[in-house]
Structures are given as C-alpha cells and as structure tokens.
Specification:
The complex is a heterodimer of chains A (377) and B (90).
Chain A: H1 2-10, H2 12-25, E1 32-38, H3 39-47, E2 58-65, H4 73-84, E3 88-92, H5 106-111, E4 116-118, H6 122-131, E5 136-143, H7 148-161, E6 166-172, H8 175-184, E7 192-195, H9 197-203, H10 209-214, E8 219-221, H11 226-241, E9 247-249, H12 261-270, E10 271-273, E11 276-279, E12 283-286, E13 290-292, H13 301-305, H14 320-325, H15 356-363, H16 368-376
Parallel strand pairs in A: 1-2, 1-7, 3-4, 3-5, 5-6, 7-8, 8-9
Antiparallel strand pairs in A: 10-13, 11-12
Helix pairs in contact in A: 2-11, 3-15, 7-12
Chain B: E1 5-13, E2 16-24, E3 27-32, E4 46-50, E5 53-58, H1 60-73, H2 75-86
Antiparallel strand pairs in B: 1-2, 1-4, 2-3, 4-5
The chains are: A alpha/beta (377), B alpha+beta (90).
The structure holds iron/sulfur cluster.
Amino acid sequence: MFMRFVDEFRDGGKARALAAKISALCEPGRQYKLMEVCGGHTHTIYKHGLEDYLPEQITMVHGPGCPVCVIPMGRIDDAMALAAEPDVIMTSFGDMMRVPGSNGSFFDAKARGTDIRMVYSPLDSLKIARQNPGRRVVFMAIGFETTAPSTAMTLLRAAQAGIGNFSVFCNHVTIVPAIKAILDSPDLRLDGFIGPGHVSAVIGCRPYEFIARDYGKPVVVAGFEPLDLLQSIYLLMAQLRGGESKVANQYSRVVPWDGNATALKVIGQTMELRPYFEWRGLGFISHSALKVRAEYSGYDAELLFGVPGVRVADPKACQCGEVLKGVLKPWECKIFGTACTPESPIGTCMVSQEGACAAYYNYGRIRRTRVKEASRS
Amino acid sequence: MCLGIPGEVIEFLPGQPDLAKVDVSGVRRVINVGLLADDVPEPGEWVLIHVGFALSKIDEDEAAAALELLEGIGQAYDDELAALAESRIE
Ligand code: SF4
C-alpha cells in the first residue's frame, strides 16, 4: 500500500496529464515566472527534472527559503568569536558546519582545536550544558519558522530547569518579510508564488494574504512531492488565467489554515522581532528575524558575550545574492562547479541540500539553454 | 532541516507527557511532542519531526511518501538519520 501511494505521487502519466493542463492555461506570447520560496521545493524540482515537464513559457525561480544560505558572513564570524571564548562549547546543526566565514568554517575552526559540536536538536545542546556544568554551552540557532519553535521550547525548558550555562545565539529568520523584500525589488517580475510547506505548518496560510491582496499575485502552499508541485503550478496558472489572486492550500493534509497555535505561542513567549537583520544577498530587511526576548536575556548569547557584529562583504566572485533573489540561475554564477562545489563551497547556496546551487549541482540535468533564455526574457 | 523526518509514535515516556519514543526507519529515539499539545498523537500515529520536535501529525501514506523522498536525497538524509541516532534528549 505504501508503494502504491508513493507511485501515485510520482506517476509519470499523471504528471504529463497535469503538464498538458498547465500548458493549456498559458496565454500565447506570455512568459510566466513562478517562485518556489522553499529550498525543499527547489530540491524536488531539480531532482525530478520538473522543469522538463513544464511548457517553455513557464520558468521556476528559486527563492530565498534555505536558512543556511541566507546567513551572512558576518554572523558566521560572530559565531566564531563566541566559539573562541575559552570556556565555551559551540553547538549547531550539521548544515552549519561547512558554511564559510571570513576565517573559514566551523569545520576549519574545529580542526584548529575550537570546541564546536554538531547536534541534531537544540535539546542535545541543552543536555551537553547539563553534562558540562563548568563550561558555557552556546547553541547557534538557525532556520525559519520550522525550527524556531524548537529553539523556543528549549529556552523554556532551560529556564524551567534553571540551567544557567546554556545560551542561544539566535539567527532565526521569518519568511514573510523576505518575500515582501523580493516583491518590492525592481530586479524581478514574478507572477505567483509556491508557498513553503513546513513553515506554513507553523504560521498557517493567512500571513500570505497580503501578497494576493496588495500585490495581486496568487500563492499556493504546496507539498514536497513532484505531483504536489505540478498541481500547485496548475492551481497558480488557473488563477492567473482567470485574473484571480488568492491564497490556496494544496498541502492541507499537513498544513492547517491557521497554523500551529502552540508553536506560535512559544515563539512569542521567548523571542521577539529584531528591528532589522542582514540577509545574505538581500541586504538588511526590517522585522525579518528573531532575537531572544528580554525576559530571557540570561539565555541570549549576544548579550552574555557580546559579538563583534561586523558586517563582512561576500567574496567578490560569489553571486549567491542573485541566486537567492532568483535573478540568476545557479549555473550562471561564474564560479559554479569550478571554484565553488559542495565539497569546498565558496557561497552558502552550495552548502545545504536545500540550496539552489547544491541541488542543481547534484541533479543537474535540466536543459540549461531553454531555462536560461526564459529567465532573461 | 526543513523537510522533516516522519516517525511512528511508539509510546510516551512515563511521567513525561512531552516526551515520546518514536520509530524512524528502524531507529528508535525519544522526541519532544510538546508542540502538538492541541492534538496529541496516539501510539501508532505518525508525526513529522524537525530537529527533535514533532511539528505536525501526518497519516501513514504521507509518512511513506515523505520517507521515500528523504531516502532519495541520499547522503544528507543518512547524515540526518545518523545525527538523530546520536541524539539523546531525555
Ligand atoms: S556557485 Fe557558489 S558562489 Fe556562486 S551563487 Fe552558487 S553558492 Fe554562491
């Protein structure tokens, strides 16, 4: 029964039928640019070569929804400064370990003897703090609203248990201001959005309503299977054809319209919006990231240690900013696949599996020329 | 990190209603289910796990599809599973 269901999501015949329906919705002579915001979707698109199913008139533009990719160099350097404090144990997710700062990555620092440990969950960090009462354990928190509730729950637990040697270096970002920044950027004319799946499981669908209302662009929150994405593209195209712009939920089997109230509550209890935050490639975006709330300041690594907070420009050759905004396709970056590879990434988009450059590098099999032309028009 | 790993709830830890043992591709680990306080999963039900926390309930079919998608990712999923296997939150 398992396999039958999985096959149903992958069914080539169904995919072609959907593709034909999508083609039929294209108006002659019009080019469509649809942005998938989430890196998980980018991954599915490249893995299954979905662009090959789509008519030439439709271009998928990859958005900024890869949390590792949007962390700017300066924050990595800040984390390194924290990690270098003599009594600190720095902890973070595996994805962070290879992200280059101006002085190398966590892996490089670890090789130089800095105590940096990879953890699966912020709760693992908390446990390390309990086991090492003589050390100060910092958790480098990254991610959108999918991981922020986990950091929030961990902060609450630390406070309840009175664990004083644990703190969070908070780099949580929120997806909606990033979408707004892209909508306001003059570089790119988009026709519609594939909304992120698991972020929406937390925030629900309402936060996207301004995109439909104020910008007149349709949004469809989508699942991660190839047919989920094709169906969502169909739903977007049907709205565009009918001159509509609404928020629709293709992934209602996981995403409740109103999100997860408990998750939102614990985020609100422990974290608050920063006035602004720097995103790699997108620059400073106001109210786009979270910091530890004043009530929990004893757990805020930025306050406990102080960080240099120096802004560091990306390496000259790096074009992650353009890739994150969807202005360039990964292979259009001059160092793609040559100086910058998943083994030795120069930019962040090559680090995480959710990054557009890594996804393309690993599955590169779509017809470059067609997409390249379409993305230029 | 954003995809989430499907796991089947096996049992709750005695006296710790936030913690449940789950089975993920044959790996049994304790995760936190506190974020599902409004709709607590029963043993035998499936959840999507993000960094040690269940974030949503899913049905068995969805779990199978999600698992297959993850297995297709290869190394990154193996790393994530290995990390989960190392994780000791209780
Ligand atoms: S190839 Fe490397 S430097 Fe260029 S955009 Fe991709 S990740 Fe950034």
